[in-house]
Amino acid sequence: MSWLLLCAALAADPSETASSTLLTLESRALKGVERTPVEDPPPIVLYNGTVMPASGPAIARGYVVVADGRIQAVGEGDAPQREGAVRIDLAGRFVTPGLIDTHSHLGVYPSPGGRAHGDGNEATAPATAGVWAEHSAFPQDPGFQRAIAGGITALQLLPGSANLVGGRGVVVQNVPTRGSRAMRFPGAPETIKLACGENPKRVYGEKGGPSTRMGNLYKLRQTLVAAEAYRRKWAEYDEKLAKSVAPADPPKKKKGDGKPPEPPTPPDRDLANETLVGVLEGRILPQIHCYRADDMLSMLQVADEFGFRVRSFHHALEAYKIRDILAEREVSVSTWADWWGFKLEAYDGIPHNAALVAEAGGRAIVHSDSSVGIQRLNQEAGKAWHTGLDAGIELPEDEALRWITLNPAWALGIDDQTGSIEVGKRADLVVWDAHPFSVYASAGLVFVDGALRYDKSRPEVWSDFEVGQGAGEGVP
Amino acid sequence: MWALLSAAWAGCLVLSGGEVFDGKGFVKGDLVAVDGRIAAVGTGIAGLAGDTYQGRACDHEKLPAGALVTPGFVDAWASIGVHEIGLEPATVDDGGTPTDPIRASLRVTDAYNPSSAYVPVWRAAGITSAVIVPGGGRVSGQSGWVRLAGQTQSDAVIEPSVAVHADLGGESKAEALQTLRELLQDARAYAANKTAVDQNRFRSFVEGASRHDLEALGPVVKGEIPLVVMVDRASDIEAVLRLAADEKVKLVISGGAEAWRHAEALATAGVPVVLSPTTYGPGSFDQIEARPDNAALLEKAGVTVLVHNDANYNAPALRFIAGNAVRGGMSKAGAIRALTEGPAKAFGLDDHGTLAVGQVADVVAWSGDPLEIGTRVLLVAIDGERQSLDNRHQALFRRYRTLPGSPTPALDVAPLGK
Q1: Which of B88, B311, B326 shows the shortest C-beta gap to A440?
Q2: Comparing C-alpha atoms, which of A13, A12, A7, A20 is closest to residue A235?
Q3: Peptide bond into B277 cis (omega under 30)
Q4: Chain centre distance of CA A319
Q5: What is the ipTM for the molecules in this complex?
Q6: Fold match between domain B1-71+353-387 and domain B73-352
Q7: Residue B290 touches chain A, beta carbons under 8 Å
Q8: CB A133 within 8 Å of CB A192
Q9: What is the pTM of this model?
Q10: Chain A residues 386-445 with CB within 8 Å of chain B
Q11: Treating both helix axes as pointing N-terminal to C-terminal, what angle do A271-280 and A213-244 enclose, rounded to 10 degrees?
Q12: N or C terminus: which one in chain A shows less Cβ crowding within 10 Å?
């Protein structure tokens, strides 16, 4: 189909706007060839355990009823009967929502680490908004299975932080598929990875720049200026296009000869700018790698200048210094429990960070950025919570649980679908054999959309890499 | 010899009302440390009366119910004080020149900075000693044992040479093993022919090995200190075990992701393994068969296990890393020994790592199970001296407890007299 025909077809609906034309183009790029894996599990009743819904305090002797992939009921005491349901006696075990990691490089830096597996940084130019992490993400990364053994049911796969604009992230469900697209979390918005501070200037300092923090800001703003121009070009095109096509219901009075003008020639597409227009229009959620407080403030200024909102600062070790501003502006903080000092911009990291952010009313998130850490996100949240308690920051247990469930769900735009045990939400659930903030706790059962995806007593091998070699069957 | 330079702390410390780790578990008892050494442990200690021991006034910590007392934890694979801000070369001193792959004579503790801001952070996490390890090269140099106290190198470095470290990484493991074998044989030849070497009447040695390197390998070939080889893959562990047996050197395996595959052989050869229980397979091609019960399987076979944290940017999490070994099936007592007695024995610091009478009084009191996340450090003593638990993290926390522009906190003024 020629461009003209394509655009004419796209413009057949007179209500189309500039951004929706681009959206329609994008929807073509988002079509899949593999069906999202659909399980048809029987209804499940989990009962006689501690239900920690994340939306509120724990229910000491609680139950959860699941059917059609959704949570049907949650409550205290005796579970209701449900015909045909598999009843699981928790015998005092703990149920939480599935854990969600806002910052993972699984799939883009798969295991085993090696030359062939370095697909996370398109470090060929400082701004590569046109690349998508999804196109690097290797669903055969054994790390996905290790992550589900740690209770991870959804995660954001991100490009690395070599670039100011690293490209699109992708929010996925932790399910085995053949291609990464089928992992996409249904209905999740698009995301973009940006980076500030040391990494871009270190990587590009001797490759044409930027080589300084001011260079970082200049290059980022210049990139956004170009995106604004691109957005205008398409708006003008769409305006002309709308006038050129006869509306379905022609106006009664006609001017001139009554013929609409010739359809305009569409602007050349630019995939990088298409992504950035999504950012400017608020459709694509910015996820910004940033450590220092002043760097984060600079990024907020850029966001204000170009009219978008930062969804989450990642790493954000100095978020505690600006927690009032971040809370007021509803910028979430994805951070670690206790990492610090590995680079100068990480030197002021303190283990109270998440607790201080939460205390100030902000959205704290404990993320992993690690194929190792993602296996124990529950422990990381527990550490961060206890550090706060020990320092007199009295936060309830369910607040700390939100750091790895509901808050990351919000940062990824899927909090209406998952992240808490509430009626109507997807049945993404973890059954723990001990309190999830204990170092000794392991996930025993993990459900995604109500389907049992991990059973500690009967683990399956997901990755083809592990078939027929290594510890293979029976790991982890 | 170095320890003689440091003035032992003269004083008395009493921890009462807790349960004390005896290597197998926790038993009710008090602990008394006098002049840097453990003087008494148990119930009904003779001469202990309130705040005095044998008539001497003591620093007395009455522990709350449920408190547990362990030897101070040891990070058996650390770079604290020599590798600070990873991406700032000016603060990184644990490596060497790539063109000089054999640097057995390098003593990494010569660069140890006792004023490192990291030291008080580790100490507040119950870590009282660290084995500082050099990195890079084929033979990276000598590790040393430091106590996480003291203002000077001479006060902090207990033993500057506890082991020589080698690494099989690089182009070819076969070549690495060949070089190590030749080097060990050269070190033996050098030791037996020093005069001839000095008079230039001896054959040449393996390329890159200086006279000082061969000298430094002397204690290794004499079996006085171990050779530590960083190796993960089972077949490489097997090859290194063979090398150590042939060359009659004491061996320690570090990494050891697939060590469980040779658990029996490691136990028979008495080779300790320094591992991280959170190493997972297949993180690298040498860790394809890593599994979460590695430590448990080694313990069961009778191997001395030492636990370390893969990352130095959150090394204070060491005890939780050990907790994950327990999650993988290791005994709790075994995991605590892996942080105390294990490293002390493996690196020849026999007067560290246990709470027996006469031992160096590196002691930590915990609010509960030391491997558990909700447990707090109550007290840290190094050489019998109570340490401050304050550090840069706490200082930054205090500074930002109230934000600039926030309402001024209420004045907390003490009443002026009665």
Answers
A1: B326
A2: A20
A3: no
A4: 20
A5: 0.94
A6: no
A7: yes
A8: no
A9: 0.94
A10: 386, 390-391, 437-442
A11: 90
A12: N
Give residue for tokens 């995660």.
A155
The predicted-structure confidence for A446-469, as pLDDT tens digits, reads as follows: 999 999 999 999 988 999 999 988
- The Cα–Cα gap between B15 and B344 comes to 23
pLDDT tops 90 at residue B289 = yes
Return the CATH class of domain B73-352: alpha beta
* Cβ neighbour number for residue B170 with a 10 Å cutoff: 12
* Residue A347 to residue B322: CA distance in whole angstroms: 26
* Contact with chain B for residue A346, Cβ under 8 A: yes
Mean predicted confidence (pLDDT) in B167-181? 94
Given CATH 2.30.40.10, say whether it is the number of domain B1-71+353-387.
Answer: yes
> What is the β-pairing status of strands B377-382 and B68-71?
unpaired
B90 in contact with chain A, both atoms CB, cutoff 8 A = no
Joined tokens for residue B40: 């008494």
Domains in chain B: boundaries = 1-71+353-387, 73-352
Q: How far is A396 from chain B (nearest CA, A)?
A: 14
A151 Ramachandran zone, left/alpha/beta (phi>0; psi -120 to 50): left
Contact B88, A344 (CB under 8 A): yes
- Predicted confidence band of residue B10 (pLDDT cuts 50, 70, 90): confident
Does the distance separating the beta carbons of A442 and B288 come in below 8 Å? Answer: no
Q: Which two tokens stand for residue B217?
A: 């390998």
Is residue A299 within 8 A of residue A321, CB to CB? The reply is no
pLDDT tens digits, residue range B216-248?
Answer: 999 999 999 999 999 999 999 999 999 999 999
Q: At what angle do helices A18-29 and A3-10 cross, to 10 degrees?
A: 120
Report the C-alpha gap between B32 and B18 in whole angstroms. 12
- CB contacts < 8 Å between A and B, how many? 125
Nearest partner of A200 among A274, A102, A128, A308, judged by Cα: A128
Q: State phi, psi for A102 to the nearest 5 degrees.
A: -80, -10
For B338, other C-beta atoms within 10 Å of its C-beta total 32
Nearest to B295 by CA among B268, B346, B249, B333: B333
Say yes or no: B284 contacts chain A, CB-CB below 8 A: yes
State the amino acid at position A412 in one-letter form: L
Q: Which residues of B touch A442 (CB under 8 A)?
A: 327
Residue ranges of chain A with pLDDT lower than 70? 1-19, 246-258, 471-476
Closest by Cα among A173, A179, A113 to A144: A173
- Cα B305 from Cα B298, distance rounded (Å): 7
**Cis peptide upstream of residue A112 (ω within 30 degrees of 0):** yes
- The string of DSSP codes covering B263-288 is HHHHHHHT--EEE-TT--TTSSGGGT
Backbone angle region of B333, left / alpha / beta, with phi > 0 → left and psi within -120 to 50 → alpha: alpha
Test A336 with B314 for CB contact under 8 angstroms. Answer: yes
Looking at every residue in chain B, the average pLDDT score rounds to: 94
What is the distance of C-alpha B378 from the center of its chain?
Answer: 21
pLDDT digits (tens, 9 = 90+) for A391-427: 999 999 999 999 999 999 999 999 999 999 999 999 9
CA distance B317 to chain A (A): 8
* Residue A45, min C-alpha distance to chain B (Å): 28
